Amino acid sequence: MKDRFSTYSQAELTRRNLLLGMSALAGTAAMGGFPGRAAAQDLPLVKAYGVPTAALKDWAPMEKSIGVRCELSGASNDVGVFMRDVMGANMGDTADIFIFESGTEDILGPQGLYATLDEAHPELTLWERTSDDWKRSAVVQDRDGKQWGVPVIGNADSFGYFPEKVGIAPDSTEELSWSLMFEDEATRGRVAYGNAYTYSMGPAALYLQGKGAAQFGNIADLTAEEAKLVADFLIERKKAGQFRTLYGAFEEQIQLLTNKEVDVINCWEPAVREANLVLGPDATRYAYTKEGYFKWGHGAYIAAQAVDRGNLDAIYKVLNYFLSGEYRALQARDRGYAGPNMDLGVEYAQSSGWTAEEIEALKATEAKVAKKFAKPYVSTTTPDNAGAMEEEWQRFMNA
User: Same domain, yes or no, for 17 and 108?
Assistant: First the structure.
């Protein structure tokens, strides 16, 4: 089949789509396009290339806090396209920072396209107090433990559901089983399932392992035999009529929930938030699960060419900002995403005069993340067995 760089052939499943409704705002902010921002053009500039979900809705708070301007050029969340841009298009000649999901550091770091992180850089003031759960994670270290980046954001994905349809109270924090997605008679024919193997094969394996039907060495990197087992299960469930539809884009997630076309959908947490803006608070919920989550994270990595450009201090200021309470609070409030130093986010909100409700929401996000991240599994964009996994997934899609 294809090598690990070939995932561009999958139906696009990108967190970039999360911001299609909002990214124009984020992109305008990144480019300094708001009225009254002329003074910002005089600040030191750091250019970033990567997934736009790392962007703030408005970079002005960062500019005020650290005196550095950031321009983020949005990349697809398609790892094949991203790595080809970095390797083949020499993006490091113009970009200072790359921001992407876990996996690229295993390849682009050792190939000399990322610079190793200087953990002792004087502008990286929050590094020491950042927990090892984040800074030593597989998102920013390679398989040999070499440090290539700084953690930016992350989350633990599960599924959205309608509480009344599955017999759960709207305010319940009960852990639900992924059986609601895969083999529950009450939801059969009312399930939407993501159509990219990188996002949806893992949860099926997680469920099979959780119920004792199989054991997997690495759910994020299934062997050919393991991938076949998962595909066989999914084909059986597909033929049983479990899935109402297989979806692709983020907009479809929102539409399926908002139109109440399904009762359960494996999706990103912001899809539930967007649906509830239309349907009302807690009309849909995002599940705590018994078996685990699709845990993902984005890291920020320095382009190797940037080391000699003379703006390393500004680059490290931006990297340090990603670890700050201000960035954490704004991302958690606006996106529901987690990241390192959530406690600093709460402190920032308190000192900045946020409302009691907003502060409690941040605390709830901190507790939610701690609860979810204690369970398996961590995804990767570059599994060694990508070819076998994609081949088995296509067998499921074609069944």
Answer: yes
Q: How many residues appear in the chain? A: 399
Residue 54 CA, chain-centre distance (Å), reads 9
CATH of the domain at 174: 3.40.190.10
Residues 6+ apart with CB under 8 A from 281: none
Say which residues have a Cβ less than 8 Å from residue 170's Cβ, sequence separation at least 6: 163, 164, 282, 283, 285
Q: Per the structure, how many domains does the chain have?
A: 2
The pLDDT tens digits for 62-117 are 999 999 999 999 886 678 888 889 998 889 999 999 999 888 999 999 999 999 99
- 372 in a domain, yes or no? no
Distance CA 221, CA 217 (A): 8
Higher per-residue confidence, 250 vs 46? 46
Cα–Cα distances in angstroms (integers) from residue 382 to residues 83, 139, 297, 387, in the given order? 10, 11, 13, 10
Q: How far apart are CA 229 and CA 205, in angstroms?
A: 9
- Please tell me the pTM assigned to this model: 0.78
What is the DSSP code string of 286-331? E-EESS--EEEEEEEEEEGGGGGTT-HHHHHHHHHHTTSHHHHHHH
The span from the CA of 303 to the CA of 2, in Å, is 27
Q: Please state the rounded mean pLDDT for residues 234-256.
A: 95
Mark 384-397 as b/e (b = at least 16 C-beta within 10 Å).
ebbbbbbbbbeebb
Enclosing domain of residue 101 = 4-155+296-366
- pLDDT band per the 50, 70, 90 thresholds, residue 39: low
How would residue 335 be classed by pLDDT, with cut points 50, 70 and 90?
confident
Is residue 267 helix, strand or coil?
strand
Q: 132 with 244, same domain?
A: no
One domain, residues 148 and 172: no
Pick from 152, 157, 135, 55: nearest CA to 101: 152
Is 316 part of a structural domain of the chain?
yes
Run of H or E including 156:
strand 149-161
pLDDT tens per residue, range 271-297: 998 999 999 999 999 999 999 999 999
Residues 293 and 88: their CA atoms lie apart, in Å, by 34
